[in-house]
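Hi V.,

You were right to ask for the full record rather than a summary. Here it is.
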Amino acid sequence: MTYRGDKVKINKRQRTLENASVFTINNLTMRKILDAVTILSALLSLGIIGTGLYTYNFVRSEQFKAKIMNQILGEVKGLLPNVLDKGLPDMTGPSIPTPPTQKELKF
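Predicted structure:
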């Protein structure tokens, strides 16, 4: 490289070396970014799979079934007294008379 006034002259060999060093720096930076994204992607995938397996096993467990049944029965017990009070009459009328039975005809 030579200086003549305010102009800089760079020969072809130096230009290729400068371009190569810039390419190497950009390549290393991009490589670090891609490695970080790869690691992050792998961690997220493993987290999603692990959470899915944990949830699947928890839902299939007897403890979960018992918990859900207790909640459902508690809600049903809370609703039943109100339904029975409104649905059953206080007093009923006389029974309906049944028609007399007919004798069988013999041929």
